[in-house]
Design a protein that fits this description.
The complex is a heterodimer. Chain A is an all-alpha fold. Chain A has three helices and no strands. Classes of the chains: A mainly alpha, B alpha/beta.
Chain lengths: 79, 684
């Protein structure tokens, strides 16, 4: 017994790991028209959010005010 | 400051229980506290409403694009807010007032007010479909109500309390609360802190006896604390994660079409109390087959409007599920109406095969269809399929040197091509065809009476919707009515069109595959070939197939197949096994409709995601998925009981028919099967 949406907010049966596998496979073998596919960066960001998002937001909620020094660094990386 | 922030509902409720012991009144914030939204941005609900208003404007001959409607609404709301700000501390707006102004501006002073209720109803419907009550908080609220506490809901919102009550009632908690208070009624909001004295005075509450629960540190926390109310604030990182994910899926879907299907599924996903543990089959229904059916019926609706089709006939038995899905999902997508009528049509290949021969006789193509299933071998099988009495063809068979048992199928022992030639020659014999027509006349007449009853001949253009695969039901249906002058133009839409036998397309009769059509090269869609049966079994109606139409003096009778024989019992077993899967499909329908209305994408937009989903699920399934979804019994009366020769079973075994040990242990099995599938599709 499982729920349709798991505790990481992934659809049961379409976890990110499975999506990554099929999109990597699709890079080498024609599997159909994916109109550009998911994109590596999107997959990375979403995987991080699904798997570690809770802890990130927990840290932000609890100690966000102490982590302000990270913001300029983050902005530099994003640039 | 007398407020504390909690990072999980459990710890908040734990503290709340202690605090509530000394309080007489507990107030709750509504949005993001008692109710959470499936979407990250509440303003997104305004988009389907803008599209609805735009659709209405076309109906009333004052067309305005939905983007323009949205801009107008935002502008009017902004003006209302700044006007309120001149007299009050809070810049609040009241929905009925600014929506009325918007409608009057678009539709004029006389029509605008008449449409307000309709638009409001749709706005609340969309809000309701996007709101989910937080189970833990609702349970605690029930505890508090049982303990005799006074409970209020206070919200800073543009919807007045009368509208908010509808949302609260939909969440099932209206009976537990004494009143719902909205800032849009008084323009005194929690944000300025002026709502608290107002509530205290109106309901005679002492601040020291008051506990407030909310999610906003400023308006629910600090402002409440300033007047002496103890308040507890929830800041749930889990919610931040959920909203952040949906926001990214939504934003990515704008630039990358691949994510459009995923954001649809993320929006229709169950949350909180809806997201309980279910059987794995239910999840397959909810996450895989349900959305596929949703996109199928959504596309049919688009085609019907585009081609001005006035009625949709969903063919039995898979049409049962399609029609049910349509009825639950389409009202959200087309609130303005304009959809064709829908009807479930009792038909089957067996029932129509005979009826289709009443005027054209038994054609060679129809005989070829009869010999497609491997279990059909001889003339008796042909007679079984076309409801003919084989004994009345003895003389005819004799003349052509055939018997009822002469093998006519090349995959059975004893096949002689000469005999098939003789059979084809017999099909051209006038006496043979005369007998066929005579035998099929009654069932055709009974069928026509039934079709007249359901209004098939009252429309000029109709959609005929079926699961697939050759379109043989529609072929038989059209042949059975082709002699009538009032026959409608039949636009056939199949879930998957594999087109094993060429379809005789004409101006009056055409067929098109929606999710897959062999005539349009679609590699991912063609993975339906892996396991067509699961879609049939998953969508099948919970009653036996139709055997035929029986003529009665004053009408007709639909004759259904018995359920007490081996095949009938096996079908019941299969139905009960797939019951959770069907529950999953039906449960997904309403949420699909709301999510699809929110996103406003069409099938072409969702196609990349569907393609990935089909390849994932059908070509590269997990072993347990195959064993879970693979049907235990697939029943087809069209298919005879004769066994083909041994060589027929040799050769390639499809992935979904492989034994468990191969699926688990055979190296690169799925990849090998996929390459073979690619080769077959390229070469066909």
């Amino acid at each position: 017994m499982k729920s349709a949406l798991n505790s990481r907010f992934e659809l049961t049966g379409y976890e990110m790991s499975r999506l990554i596998k099929i999109s990597v496979f699709g890079k080498f073998v024609p599997i159909g028209n994916l109109r550009g596919g998911p994109g590596g960066r999107c997959l990375c960001v979403l995987s991080l959010l699904h798997y570690f998002g809770f802890w990130g937001y927990w840290l932000k909620a609890k100690h966000g005010h102490r982590l302000n020094f990270i913001k300029p660094m983050y902005r530099r990386i994003k640039r | 400051m007398n407020f504390q922030t909690y990072y999980s509902l459990t710890s908040l409720i734990e503290r709340g229980r202690v605090a509530a012991e000394t309080k007489t009144t507990v107030t709750f914030d509504l949005f993001d506290t008692l109710l959470i939204r499936r979407i990250h941005d509440p303003d997104l609900v305004k988009l389907p409403v803008a599209r609805f208003v735009s659709a209405l404007s076309k109906e009333y001959d004052c067309p305005v694009g939905w983007k323009k409607v949205e801009d107008l609404r935002d502008g009017i709301e902004r003006t209302h807010r700044s006007k309120t700000g001149e007299s009050f501390a809070d810049h609040e707006a009241c929905y009925p007032k600014y929506m009325l102004e918007l409608l009057c501006e678009i539709f004029g002073e006389s029509t605008g007010p008449k449409l307000l209720d309709r638009v409001t109803e749709y706005e609340l419907f969309m809000e309701n479909s996007m709101l989910v009550p937080r189970v833990e908080l609702v349970n605690w609220l029930k505890e508090l109500a049982d303990a005799g506490k006074r409970i209020f809901i206070i919200s800073d919102m543009y919807l007045p309390a009368s509208h908010l009550k509808k949302l609260v009632a939909h969440a099932g908690i209206l009976d537990l609360v004494e009143d719902v208070i909205s800032s849009s009624d008084t323009f005194l909001a929690k944000a300025s802190g002026e709502a608290y004295p107002l509530v205290a005075e109106k309901y005679d509450i002492a601040y020291k006896d008051w506990l407030h629960i909310g999610d906003n540190g400023f308006s629910d926390g600090m402002r409440a604390a300033e007047v002496g109310i103890e308040s507890l604030i929830i800041h749930d990182p889990k919610e931040d994660q959920r909203k952040s994910l949906i926001q990214r899926y939504y934003n990515y879907s704008d630039g990358k079409p691949f994510w459009r299907g995923r954001v649809l599924q993320q929006l229709m996903a169950p949350h909180e109390g809806e997201n309980v543990d279910q059987s794995p089959l239910y999840i397959e229904g909810y996450n895989f087959i349900g959305p596929m059916i949703g996109l199928f019926v959504q596309r049919i609706a688009e085609l019907c409007i585009e081609k001005k089709l006035t009625k949709v006939f969903f063919l039995s038995r898979e049409g049962w599920t399609f029609k049910r899905y349509w009825e639950q999902a389409m009202p959200a997508l087309y609130p303005q109406g304009g959809l064709p009528e829908v009807e479930y049509l009792y038909v089957s290949r067996m029932a129509l095969a005979g009826a289709s021969c009443a005027y054209n006789g038994l054609t060679k193509t129809k005989a070829d269809i009869a010999f497609l299933p491997s279990g059909n071998r001889d003339f008796r099988d042909v007679c079984r399929i076309f409801s003919l009495d084989s004994s009345r063809f003895e003389a005819c068979l004799d003349r052509f040197g055939l018997t009822e048992e002469t093998c006519l199928s090349h995959i059975h022992d004893g096949y002689d091509p000469e005999n098939r030639m003789k059979f084809v020659a017999m099909l051209e014999d006038v006496a043979f065809q005369h007998e066929v027509k005579a035998q099929c006349k009654d069932s055709n007449l009974a069928m026509l009476r039934y079709f007249e009853d359901v209004g098939l001949f009252e429309h000029e253009d109709v959609a005929i919707v079926d699961i697939g695969w050759l379109g043989s039901i529609q072929r038989f249906l059209f042949e059975a009515i082709a002699h009538r002058d009032d026959k409608p133009t039949c636009h056939g839409y199949l879930f998957g069109a594999t087109r094993g036998i060429p379809f005789n397309t004409s101006d009056k009769n055409s067929v098109e595959g929606i999710m897959y059509d062999r005539d349009k090269f679609d590699l991912a869609g063609s993975t339906l070939f892996y396991a067509r049966d699961i879609f049939e079994e998953a969508c099948r109606a919970p009653y036996p197939t139709l055997n035929g139409y029986k003529l009665k003096d004053d009408g007709y009778e639909l004759v259904f197949r018995q359920t007490d024989d081996t095949i009938g019992k096996a079908e019941l077993v299969q139905d009960s096994y797939f019951a959770p899967l069907q529950d999953g499909i039906y449960d997904s329908a309403k949420r699909f409709g709301a999510a699809a209305a929110m996103l406003n994408y069409s099938l072409a937009d969702y196609r990349p995601w569907i393609n990935a989903m089909l390849v994932n699920k059908l070509a590269f399934p997990k072993t347990e998925e195959i064993f879970r979804i693979r049907n235990q019994h697939h029943l087809d009366d069209f298919h005879g009981q004769k066994k083909p020769k041994a060589e027929f079973y040799k050769g390639f075994v499809p992935l979904w028919d492989r034994p468990q040990w191969q699926l688990r242990l055979s190296p690169l099995l799925r990849i090998r099967c996929f390459f073979r599938h690619l080769r077959e599709r390229i070469n066909e």
